[in-house]
From TrEMBL:
Name by which UniProt lists this protein: EamA/RhaT family transporter
Membrane association type: Multi-pass membrane protein
UniProt keyword terms in alphabetical order: Cell membrane, Membrane, Transmembrane, Transmembrane helix
Species name: Pseudorhizobium halotolerans
Primary localisation category: membrane
Length: 298
């Protein structure tokens, strides 16, 4: 696969994730959040299970109890991100959700500093300020216009940041990405269903009405897009992969306008652009700095 082909694969993954925001939003017309998240990740876990089994057969070292507990911790963070995002979509738009979720690009290095004592590149600080400015403009220039769903989506971005950090740590230490994927999906589903059963109602009519959305996000958005991401990143650079994958926010905004008729105030589009620029700066500036340092030393 050429680099151009790999980047197109990553662009397709981002488009699928962008479509996932629309599916998650329309599903809320028929099914409640905990049931949706529980069923979504149950399907994803079942889809990944055969591949995780083949991976385990080829592995030279079996996973221990601590490894499975670590994978469950990733699933706990995944549950936090998925459920706050899903509940947030009840009172926010697909456009806002897609862009605010992208704040994990800023949260990841901040969490690394506080928890892991790993200090990020200097660009993270102006990028964080840009992101906050973008959120302010997305609200129409008035913080009172931010909905409870917007605030929940910011919390969701924090949980995604935790999930990304934990997944990176444990997939590196175990070398078992498919086992990790299955375990985090299964953990997330079990947690969501444990809340859904006593607090929400469900029936076959509800499942049938939201079946298309559940299958899309379970098989396509959670399953296929993950595989496309892994394949694409084998043949392209990390900065290019970040650019193409972060375009999920643009796809989410575009599809929200095209399929759901969502409209932002003019100043809101400026806010979206600023948040997107912040995400790109966080990924691109450190890489350009490293390249410049290499050329100077050589």
């Amino acid at each position: 696969m050429t680099r151009i082909q790999a980047n197109l694969v990553l662009l397709l993954a981002a488009a699928i994730w962008g479509g996932g925001f629309v599916a998650q939003s329309t599903a809320m017309d028929n099914i409640q959040p905990f049931w949706f998240v529980g069923l979504r990740f149950a399907i994803a876990a079942l889809a990944v299970l055969p591949f995780a089994w083949f991976e385990s057969r080829k592995a030279t070292t079996p996973l221990g109890r601590r490894d499975w507990l670590a994978f469950a911790a990733v699933g706990l963070a995944l549950f936090g991100g998925a459920i706050t995002q899903q509940i947030g979509l009840l009172t926010t738009t697909v456009t806002n959700s897609s862009f605010l979720t992208g704040l994990y690009v800023v949260f990841v290095p901040l969490i690394s500093v506080i928890v892991l004592r790993r200090y990020p590149h200097w660009v993270i600080w102006p990028a964080a300020a840009m992101s906050l400015t973008g959120i302010f403009l997305m609200s129409g220039g008035q913080l009172t216009n931010l909905t409870p769903g917007d605030y929940l989506t910011i919390v969701c971005a924090f949980f995604w940041g935790v999930q990304i950090i934990l997944a990176g740590l444990f997939v590196t230490s175990t070398g078992r990405p498919l086992a990790l994927s299955f375990a985090q999906f299964a953990t997330c589903s079990a947690l969501a269903l444990s809340f859904a059963v006593p607090t929400e109602t469900i029936g076959w009519e509800v499942i049938r009405a939201s079946a298309a959305e559940i299958l899309y996000v379970g098989l396509i958005s959670s399953g296929l897009a993950f595989v496309l991401q892994v394949i694409g990143q084998r043949y392209t650079t990390a900065p290019q992969a970040a650019i193409f994958l972060s375009s999920e926010a643009l796809f989410g905004s575009f599809l929200g306008a095209l399929l759901l008729g969502e409209i932002l105030p003019p100043i809101g589009y400026v806010g979206c652009a600023i948040i997107f620029m912040a995400m790109l700066l966080v990924e691109l500036v450190p890489e350009l700095t490293r390249r410049r340092s290499r050329s100077v030393t050589s």
